[in-house]
Amino acid sequence: MHTGMRSLAWGAALRHWTRRAENRLTLPFFLLALLAGAGCKRDPPVIAVIPRTCGTALWEPEHAGAAAVARQRGFEIYWNAPMRDDDTQAQIALIEKSLQRGYAGIIVSPIETLPMRTPIQSILARGVPVVVVGTELGFPPGPKLSYVLSDERAAGEMAARRIGSVLSGKGSIAILGINPQLTSNLDRERSLEVTLAREFPGIQVAVRQFGLSSVPQEQEAAEELLVKGPKVDAIAALSLASTRGVYYALVEFGKAGVIKLVGFDQDLLPPVRTGGIDSVVMQNTYQMGSLAMDLMDRALHGKGTATVLEVPPVLMTRENVDSAQIRQILNMAWWPPR
Amino acid sequence: MKSIFTRRHLIFAGAAVAAIALLAVCGVFVFRSIARRGPFSAQGISLARQDDWQAFGGTWQYIDGVMQNNSDERGAKLMSGPTHWANYSIEADVLLLGQYGDAGLIIRATDEEEGVDAYHGYMAGLRDLDNTLILGRADYGWREYAAKPVTPRVYAQQWYHVKFLAYGCDFAVSATAPGGETTSVAVEDPDCLSAGRFGLKSYNTGAEWRNVEIRPANRQDLVAMTAANRPPIATPDALPMGAAPGSYDHYFEPIQRDLLAHRADVNSQPISSLRLLSPDVPASVTIHGVVTLTSPVLFVQDPTGGLAITDSHAHAPLQIGDEVEAKGDAELHDFSSRLRNADVRLLWSHTPVLPVAVTAAQAATGAFDAEYVQIEGRLEHKDETPAHTLVLTLDDASQSFLAIVSGAAQVERLRALKEKSRLRLRGVCVVDSRYTRDLTAFALLLPSFNDVDVVEGPPWWSTGHIVAMTIGVLLLALTGLSCYILIERWRMQAVLEERGRLAHEMHDTLAQSFAGLGFQLEAIRDEANEGSNIVPQLELARDMVRSSHEEARRSIAMLRPQALESVGLLQALENFTRHMVNGTSSIAVRVSSEGSERAIPLRISDTLMRIGQEAVANAVRHARPSHLDIALNYLHSAVELVVEDDGCGFSLTSELAGFGISGMHKRADSIGATLTIRTAPDKGTALCVHAPTPPSFLRLFWQRLHIPWRKSSHGSAHR
Asked: Chain A to chain B, count of Cβ pairs less than 8 Å apart?
């Protein structure tokens, strides 16, 4: 055969086999590409939930409540908080980190009211929705900003009525743990005093003390009260740290159960059973977490409205500590069920 | 337009990419499956190499083989190792410093951050709150899988050996008490985390770790820990600790321990009141205060004052900011009081003390002894001792004082401080002579390099800066001068070019016209009859034209700069002179030069050339000399041109000293030269131009800048 003819024949054969290979490979190749494309699904939106601290009986139920709603709505949660519940700067740093990571929304429980204003405003300015849990910041809610609060006025009234009840309307009390840096705490205190004055005029407030940042400090303050202060029949402790600090001091001086302690924010449970702590006004943080995540979902879908929700507190006493209602509030199961 | 990429190309390219991706995935899979077996070697793990560990919260330090976290933060972590290790065990001796927390080991961790449970991984350890061995999983939230009471119990300040193993989705932990009693627990986590780093963790208490070992784990290792029992499926407890009925007794003891640990003596004394104690009667006192310095001596401060505590015994490592209760013997000194043999107990942490801003004069009174203060001063001197102590001597107004910082790392950071800087320092003010050396009223003990701020650098008018500025100004002046000379050179070049153009114009028009006129007159003269009246007039006209032609040629020669550019000044003058005397064999021309030849700036050489030409022309045309001497003398900082003839001379006061001499004077003035003419009737004429030249370093500088200089040497010229 002529050389040129041989070349043409080889070329034709090559083209033939190439075409056959094309025909056979095209379909699998595109199927493969389709499968690969289907595998690249979008990550779910991440919502940062930043309480005052975490790993406690007060704040882990918020994790559980928020996580339960997030699972239903297809969100992921970034749950983290300062290691101390008085570390405002660490909380602000976590908020900034969440913003830098591009999380879809932020649910935050401010440690202090005033320092949190600027960070929250700057988040809102970037169009990221925020739900503030536990305290008001002073500026009104809007489509991107909602509040979920514990009804502190009701909490103050609840504590006042419990004190009035256990003292039978007569005696003197001390109010410890007043925190002028936190609006919700001041609301508690005002409501407590107003209710006492209105409904139990026979009960006098003999001592008022500012809150301190840790349990030992609160313990020392309570010790001083018990040693050097006026005689009191009951103590209202307005924060978790002051409740525990006062309880420690009462145990130390053998006054647990003798001086009635009405505390705020769930922490130590065994002393409630024994009466060492008379009662604790609980924040329903589980429900607050659920509601906050629900409001976040609405805001992310453009359905956000200027919302302020108030969740009623619950009084935990020796009598109801094992009730279903209390157990639901204490539920810390943030993980998915198996 | 048809694409160069056909469908075939795309298919093959896609297939190639897919093959590469497949290979990569296989490679990673093989690597990870090998790696999942666990660490290849545990030899490289050491607590001593702190760079290998990453801290998330806590205050970690390694001392004598023990890693210590002195912080009671909730959730301090120290992590190490690669994220792909899967089946391995970590074991260590663990000691809890506090009464109300837990401490242990982390395994298979990833994505660690600062935070209580801010990591994905597993943790197992000892909790003295409820006396249990715990095992659980953190996913930015804690799931407690097991909490088993420890036999005999968990005591703080006691070493336990803890081993934590992960194999597949099974996890086992054991804790061995000093008496040899071992408590174990194991779980299976069906949706387990498959790989991750290891680490140390404490919660709500300080803790210590030693003898940390990492080993690869296999099924036999797991069986050895679980006694062949299948670990139960992990089920986390949804309620907080103590929520179960009947748990009060279980928790009362740790609560009791916790409250006793923080119980304070409400009858403690204010620190300032110690000054009022009797100096003769030993007194045991209790004070409360915040730690302001831990080294070289412990200092504490309360709202009334500060105090040094020597020979102290602390129950736990102390940090600045810790609130402590100290019981000891009060010791009174001239200007201060101390506490000796003190038992120091930590009450709580994180109580920052703000420094009191005082002047050196106020501190010098001793009123702020042992208090945390802030003072400003100007740094006069730095003195570093071999024992890694830096002593700064500072002045403020009329008072000098010392600032002392210890530790290699601290000294390293402060070594760069510049003397004469104004500093703001925060530290404990002491009047103790051990620190002041009785030379200053007080000294400042600085906790760290962070307590030094530079308020103002040293004054600008230092020797170095003045020298630098002088050099800068000189360079600026030189640059300006070079610019000026460059501009002058460009201007001179332009003048020379214009002269050249004029010379060409004159040559092409005036000189040619004179030549033509001469020829025409010559022709008319030839045609005219001899003896005709017109002949003398024609000859006069021809002579006048010839003279004018000569004059024009001379002017052209003077205007043309080429003569000076192509040869040196002296050579150019000689050429010009010989051209002038051409045909006048009675004038002998002598040319000479003295001194070391060097380049002469163009402006000077050009002016000398013009003056020389004028002088030579005057001599040839008017003086009728027999000798004409031209000399160019190179002096130290000047150049001198001398043109001398032995002609008829003239009186300087006569009319002869007219426009030509005046022009020469003007030219000489333009380059700052002096022109001297020595002459008298029948005494010849000597003309001397003395022109100063720039200093030699400038000449060198210009030569470096490649600025053309004209050399007077024959036949050479720089450009």
From this structure: 140
Position A22 scores a pLDDT of: 53
Q: Confirm whether B646 is domain-assigned.
A: yes
Instruction: Tell me which DSSP letter residue A52 carries.
Output: S
The CA distance from B524 to B544, in Å, is: 15
- Give the one of A77, A248, A335 whose C-beta lies nearest to B143's C-beta: A335
**B641 three-class SS:** strand
Phi (first) and psi of residue B629, to 5 degrees: -105, 130
Using a CB-CB cut-off of 8 Å, the residues of chain A touching B239 are 327, 330-332
Report d(CA A47, CA A130) in Å as an integer: 10
Residues in B closer than 8 angstroms to A220, CB to CB, are 262, 264, 266, 347
Contacts of A277 by beta carbon, 8 Å cutoff, 6+ apart: A243, A247, A261, A263, A268, A271
Here the ipTM equals 0.85
Q: Which of A25 and A177 is assigned the larger pLDDT?
A: A177
pLDDT, averaged in runs of 10, over chain B (719 residues): 60 78 71 51 68 89 88 90 94 90 96 95 92 95 94 91 96 96 96 96 93 93 89 90 72 77 81 83 89 91 92 79 90 85 85 88 92 95 88 92 88 88 95 89 92 90 87 95 89 82 82 84 82 84 83 73 66 85 77 87 84 87 88 90 91 65 87 91 91 69 51 36
Count of alpha carbons within 13 Å of B240, Cβ hemisphere only?
A: 23
Which residue among A22, A79, A251 sits closest to B259, beta carbon to beta carbon? A251
pLDDT recorded at residue B147:
93
Answer whether A46-150+284-312 and A153-282 agree in fold: yes
Distance from CA of B221 to the nearest CA of A (A): 28
Which of A79, A215, A268 is the closest to B262 by Cβ? A215
Q: B501: buried, middle or exposed (CB in 10 Å: 19+, 13-18, 0-12)? A: exposed
Q: Which of residues 230-259 of A touch B (CB under 8 A)?
A: 248-249, 251-252
Q: Which amino acid is at B276?
A: L
A14 touching B (Cβ < 8 Å): no
- Class of the CATH domain delimited by A153-282: alpha beta
Which residues are registered as beta bridge partners of A46? A76
Amino acid at B511: A
Distance CA(B56)–CA(B115), nearest Å, equals 8
B697 is written with which tokens? 């370093």
Complete DSSP assignment for B665-709: HHHHHHTT-EEEEEE-TTS-EEEEEEEE---HHHHHHHHHTT---
Same domain, B372 and B502: no
Residues in chain A: 338
Q: Considering CB atoms only, which of B18, B239, B259 is closest to A248?
A: B259
Query: What's the Cα-to-Cα distance from A37 to each of A29, A31, A289, B22, rounded to whole Å?
Result: 12, 10, 36, 16
Pair (B575, B645) in one structural domain: yes
Q: Give yes or no for A305 touching B (CB within 8 A).
A: no
A46-150+284-312 in CATH: which number?
3.40.50.2300
Structural domain contains residue B15? no
CA dist B25 and B32 (Å) reads 10
pLDDT 10s digits, A304-315: 888 999 999 999
**B238 contacts A333? CB cut-off 8 A:** yes
pLDDT digits (tens, 9 = 90+) for B495-541: 878 887 888 888 778 878 888 888 888 888 888 887 788 888 888 88
Q: Which are the contacts of B260, defined by CB distance < 8 A and separation ≥ 6? A: A252
Gyration radius of chain A over CA positions: 30
Give domain status of residue B262, yes or no.
no
Spatial distance between the Cα atoms of B529 and B533, rounded to a whole number of angstroms: 9
Nearest alpha carbon to residue B680 among B656, B662, B664:
B656
